[in-house]
Design brief:
- It is a single chain.
- This protein is about 85% helix and about 0% strand.
- With about 250 residues, it is mainly alpha-helical.
- It has a domain of about 180 residues: Up-down Bundle (Methane Monooxygenase Hydroxylase, Chain G, domain 1).
- It starts with a helix and ends in a 7-residue tail after the last helix.
- About 5% of the residues have low confidence.
Protein backbone atom coordinates (compact mmCIF):
# COMPACT_ATOMS: atom_id res chain seq x y z
CA UNK A 1 0.00 0.00 0.00
CA UNK A 2 2.34 2.64 -1.25
CA UNK A 3 -0.37 5.04 -2.48
CA UNK A 4 -3.50 6.55 -0.88
CA UNK A 5 -5.67 4.72 -3.43
CA UNK A 6 -4.27 1.34 -2.41
CA UNK A 7 -4.73 2.23 1.28
CA UNK A 8 -8.40 3.11 0.74
CA UNK A 9 -9.02 -0.12 -1.19
CA UNK A 10 -7.46 -2.15 1.62
CA UNK A 11 -9.48 -0.21 4.22
CA UNK A 12 -12.76 -0.85 2.41
CA UNK A 13 -11.90 -4.55 2.18
CA UNK A 14 -11.22 -4.70 5.93
CA UNK A 15 -14.49 -2.91 6.73
CA UNK A 16 -16.41 -5.27 4.46
CA UNK A 17 -14.86 -8.27 6.20
CA UNK A 18 -15.70 -6.75 9.59
CA UNK A 19 -19.34 -6.19 8.61
CA UNK A 20 -19.66 -9.79 7.41
CA UNK A 21 -18.03 -11.20 10.55
CA UNK A 22 -20.12 -8.97 12.82
CA UNK A 23 -23.28 -10.25 11.13
CA UNK A 24 -22.17 -13.84 11.66
CA UNK A 25 -21.33 -13.18 15.32
CA UNK A 26 -24.81 -11.70 15.86
CA UNK A 27 -26.39 -14.69 14.09
CA UNK A 28 -24.56 -17.01 16.49
CA UNK A 29 -25.80 -15.06 19.51
CA UNK A 30 -29.38 -15.00 18.23
CA UNK A 31 -29.26 -18.69 17.34
CA UNK A 32 -27.98 -19.72 20.75
CA UNK A 33 -30.68 -17.65 22.46
CA UNK A 34 -33.30 -19.23 20.21
CA UNK A 35 -32.16 -22.74 21.10
CA UNK A 36 -31.00 -23.66 17.59
CA UNK A 37 -28.31 -26.20 16.68
CA UNK A 38 -25.38 -25.29 18.91
CA UNK A 39 -22.93 -27.52 17.06
CA UNK A 40 -23.44 -25.50 13.91
CA UNK A 41 -22.81 -22.27 15.84
CA UNK A 42 -19.67 -23.76 17.39
CA UNK A 43 -18.25 -24.18 13.88
CA UNK A 44 -19.35 -20.66 13.03
CA UNK A 45 -17.68 -19.38 16.20
CA UNK A 46 -14.30 -20.88 15.19
CA UNK A 47 -14.63 -19.38 11.73
CA UNK A 48 -15.50 -15.97 13.22
CA UNK A 49 -12.44 -16.06 15.48
CA UNK A 50 -10.20 -16.75 12.47
CA UNK A 51 -11.85 -13.95 10.49
CA UNK A 52 -11.36 -11.48 13.32
CA UNK A 53 -7.69 -12.41 13.56
CA UNK A 54 -7.33 -11.74 9.84
CA UNK A 55 -9.08 -8.38 10.18
CA UNK A 56 -6.76 -7.41 13.05
CA UNK A 57 -3.79 -8.26 10.83
CA UNK A 58 -5.30 -6.07 8.09
CA UNK A 59 -5.70 -3.24 10.57
CA UNK A 60 -2.06 -3.55 11.62
CA UNK A 61 -0.96 -3.39 7.97
CA UNK A 62 -3.14 -0.33 7.43
CA UNK A 63 -1.59 1.37 10.45
CA UNK A 64 1.96 0.63 9.23
CA UNK A 65 1.12 1.86 5.71
CA UNK A 66 -0.43 5.04 7.11
CA UNK A 67 2.82 5.79 8.94
CA UNK A 68 4.69 5.55 5.64
CA UNK A 69 2.15 7.70 3.79
CA UNK A 70 2.37 10.35 6.50
CA UNK A 71 6.06 10.87 5.71
CA UNK A 72 5.48 13.37 2.93
CA UNK A 73 3.16 11.46 0.59
CA UNK A 74 -0.14 12.81 1.94
CA UNK A 75 -1.06 16.08 3.63
CA UNK A 76 -1.64 16.39 7.41
CA UNK A 77 -5.39 16.79 6.89
CA UNK A 78 -5.48 13.51 4.96
CA UNK A 79 -3.46 11.82 7.70
CA UNK A 80 -6.09 12.93 10.22
CA UNK A 81 -8.90 11.62 7.99
CA UNK A 82 -7.22 8.24 7.49
CA UNK A 83 -6.51 8.01 11.22
CA UNK A 84 -10.21 8.54 12.00
CA UNK A 85 -11.10 5.76 9.55
CA UNK A 86 -8.59 3.47 11.23
CA UNK A 87 -10.01 4.32 14.66
CA UNK A 88 -13.50 3.47 13.43
CA UNK A 89 -12.23 0.09 12.23
CA UNK A 90 -10.48 -0.53 15.56
CA UNK A 91 -13.56 0.24 17.68
CA UNK A 92 -15.78 -1.96 15.51
CA UNK A 93 -13.26 -4.79 15.65
CA UNK A 94 -12.94 -4.62 19.44
CA UNK A 95 -16.71 -4.63 19.89
CA UNK A 96 -17.16 -7.63 17.59
CA UNK A 97 -14.26 -9.48 19.26
CA UNK A 98 -15.86 -8.89 22.66
CA UNK A 99 -19.19 -10.29 21.49
CA UNK A 100 -17.56 -13.24 19.74
CA UNK A 101 -15.82 -14.31 22.98
CA UNK A 102 -19.10 -14.59 24.87
CA UNK A 103 -19.79 -18.11 26.11
CA UNK A 104 -23.14 -19.79 25.70
CA UNK A 105 -23.91 -19.18 29.37
CA UNK A 106 -23.15 -15.48 29.01
CA UNK A 107 -25.29 -15.25 25.86
CA UNK A 108 -28.22 -17.01 27.48
CA UNK A 109 -27.83 -14.97 30.66
CA UNK A 110 -27.74 -11.72 28.72
CA UNK A 111 -30.74 -12.84 26.71
CA UNK A 112 -32.63 -13.70 29.84
CA UNK A 113 -31.98 -10.28 31.29
CA UNK A 114 -33.02 -8.54 28.09
CA UNK A 115 -35.69 -10.69 26.53
CA UNK A 116 -37.68 -12.52 29.22
CA UNK A 117 -41.02 -10.86 29.71
CA UNK A 118 -41.77 -9.49 33.13
CA UNK A 119 -38.14 -8.53 33.83
CA UNK A 120 -37.85 -5.67 36.22
CA UNK A 121 -35.26 -3.86 34.15
CA UNK A 122 -36.57 -3.04 30.68
CA UNK A 123 -34.39 -3.17 27.65
CA UNK A 124 -33.68 0.25 26.18
CA UNK A 125 -36.07 0.87 23.28
CA UNK A 126 -38.44 -1.94 24.36
CA UNK A 127 -42.03 -1.52 23.21
CA UNK A 128 -45.37 -3.05 24.16
CA UNK A 129 -45.07 -5.29 21.12
CA UNK A 130 -41.73 -6.77 22.18
CA UNK A 131 -42.81 -7.27 25.80
CA UNK A 132 -45.50 -9.67 24.62
CA UNK A 133 -43.03 -11.76 22.56
CA UNK A 134 -41.36 -14.95 23.63
CA UNK A 135 -37.59 -15.40 23.53
CA UNK A 136 -37.76 -17.15 20.16
CA UNK A 137 -39.96 -14.45 18.64
CA UNK A 138 -37.65 -11.74 19.95
CA UNK A 139 -34.68 -13.57 18.51
CA UNK A 140 -36.35 -13.80 15.09
CA UNK A 141 -37.33 -10.12 15.25
CA UNK A 142 -33.80 -9.17 16.20
CA UNK A 143 -32.37 -11.27 13.36
CA UNK A 144 -34.81 -9.73 10.89
CA UNK A 145 -33.84 -6.23 11.91
CA UNK A 146 -30.17 -7.10 11.61
CA UNK A 147 -30.78 -8.38 8.08
CA UNK A 148 -32.58 -5.15 7.20
CA UNK A 149 -29.72 -3.09 8.58
CA UNK A 150 -27.23 -5.19 6.63
CA UNK A 151 -29.20 -4.63 3.44
CA UNK A 152 -29.25 -0.90 4.06
CA UNK A 153 -25.52 -0.91 4.75
CA UNK A 154 -24.94 -2.86 1.54
CA UNK A 155 -26.95 -0.28 -0.41
CA UNK A 156 -24.99 2.55 1.19
CA UNK A 157 -21.77 0.75 0.35
CA UNK A 158 -22.86 0.24 -3.27
CA UNK A 159 -23.82 3.92 -3.51
CA UNK A 160 -20.44 4.95 -2.16
CA UNK A 161 -18.74 2.68 -4.67
CA UNK A 162 -20.68 4.36 -7.49
CA UNK A 163 -19.70 7.80 -6.22
CA UNK A 164 -16.11 6.65 -5.94
CA UNK A 165 -16.11 5.46 -9.54
CA UNK A 166 -17.56 8.80 -10.63
CA UNK A 167 -14.86 10.65 -8.72
CA UNK A 168 -12.16 8.45 -10.28
CA UNK A 169 -13.65 9.06 -13.74
CA UNK A 170 -13.60 12.82 -13.14
CA UNK A 171 -10.00 12.57 -11.99
CA UNK A 172 -9.05 10.59 -15.10
CA UNK A 173 -10.79 13.14 -17.31
CA UNK A 174 -8.91 15.96 -15.60
CA UNK A 175 -5.66 14.09 -16.15
CA UNK A 176 -6.51 13.81 -19.86
CA UNK A 177 -7.52 17.45 -20.16
CA UNK A 178 -4.45 18.79 -18.39
CA UNK A 179 -2.00 18.09 -21.28
CA UNK A 180 -4.48 19.59 -23.74
CA UNK A 181 -4.77 22.75 -21.64
CA UNK A 182 -0.99 22.89 -21.40
CA UNK A 183 -0.64 22.60 -25.20
CA UNK A 184 -3.24 25.32 -25.70
CA UNK A 185 -1.27 27.55 -23.35
CA UNK A 186 1.93 26.88 -25.29
CA UNK A 187 0.20 27.71 -28.57
CA UNK A 188 -1.16 30.92 -27.10
CA UNK A 189 2.34 31.89 -25.95
CA UNK A 190 3.70 31.14 -29.43
CA UNK A 191 0.91 33.17 -31.04
CA UNK A 192 1.57 36.05 -28.65
CA UNK A 193 5.27 35.94 -29.57
CA UNK A 194 4.42 36.05 -33.27
CA UNK A 195 2.03 38.96 -32.76
CA UNK A 196 4.71 40.89 -30.87
CA UNK A 197 7.23 40.19 -33.65
CA UNK A 198 4.73 41.36 -36.27
CA UNK A 199 4.08 44.54 -34.30
CA UNK A 200 7.80 45.21 -34.13
CA UNK A 201 8.13 44.78 -37.89
CA UNK A 202 5.20 47.12 -38.45
CA UNK A 203 6.83 49.74 -36.23
CA UNK A 204 10.07 49.46 -38.24
CA UNK A 205 8.19 49.81 -41.50
CA UNK A 206 6.32 52.84 -40.21
CA UNK A 207 9.61 54.51 -39.24
CA UNK A 208 11.09 53.75 -42.64
CA UNK A 209 7.99 55.02 -44.43
CA UNK A 210 8.25 58.33 -42.59
CA UNK A 211 11.66 58.98 -44.22
CA UNK A 212 10.39 57.78 -47.60
CA UNK A 213 7.39 60.12 -47.44
CA UNK A 214 9.70 63.07 -46.84
CA UNK A 215 11.76 62.03 -49.87
CA UNK A 216 8.60 61.76 -51.97
CA UNK A 217 7.46 65.21 -50.88
CA UNK A 218 10.89 66.69 -51.73
CA UNK A 219 10.83 65.03 -55.18
CA UNK A 220 7.35 66.42 -55.84
CA UNK A 221 8.48 69.89 -54.79
CA UNK A 222 11.52 69.70 -57.08
CA UNK A 223 9.36 68.53 -59.95
CA UNK A 224 7.01 71.42 -59.29
CA UNK A 225 9.91 73.88 -59.35
CA UNK A 226 11.26 72.39 -62.58
CA UNK A 227 7.84 72.54 -64.22
CA UNK A 228 7.44 76.13 -63.11
CA UNK A 229 10.86 77.01 -64.49
CA UNK A 230 10.09 75.33 -67.80
CA UNK A 231 6.75 77.08 -68.09
CA UNK A 232 8.19 80.43 -67.16
CA UNK A 233 11.11 79.94 -69.62
CA UNK A 234 8.82 79.11 -72.54
CA UNK A 235 6.63 82.08 -71.75
CA UNK A 236 9.64 84.43 -71.70
CA UNK A 237 10.98 83.18 -75.01
CA UNK A 238 7.58 83.56 -76.65
CA UNK A 239 7.19 87.04 -75.33
CA UNK A 240 10.63 88.00 -76.60
CA UNK A 241 9.95 86.57 -80.02
CA UNK A 242 6.65 88.40 -80.31
CA UNK A 243 8.15 91.69 -79.25
CA UNK A 244 10.86 91.34 -81.82
CA UNK A 245 8.33 90.60 -84.55
CA UNK A 246 6.13 93.56 -83.82
CA UNK A 247 9.00 96.06 -83.76
CA UNK A 248 9.13 97.92 -87.17
CA UNK A 249 12.44 97.88 -88.99
CA UNK A 250 14.70 100.86 -88.65
CA UNK A 251 14.61 103.36 -91.40
CA UNK A 252 17.71 103.79 -93.57
CA UNK A 253 18.88 107.21 -94.41
Amino acid sequence: MSTPEEWNIAYEGAMKNLQTTTRQVNERIVGIRGGQNRQMFATMHNRNIASLQGIRKQMQNLSASLDKLARGIIQPKEVQLYSSKLEKLRLGLEDTEKRSKMTEAEIIGEGRDQLLSGAKEKVRGETEETRAMTSGELAQTFESRIDQQDQMLDKIHDGLQVEKQKALAIGDELDLQDPLIERVGQKMDHADHRVRAANNRIDVLIKKNKGTCCLYVLIVLLLGVLIAMVISGNFGMGYYAGEKKDTPPAKSF
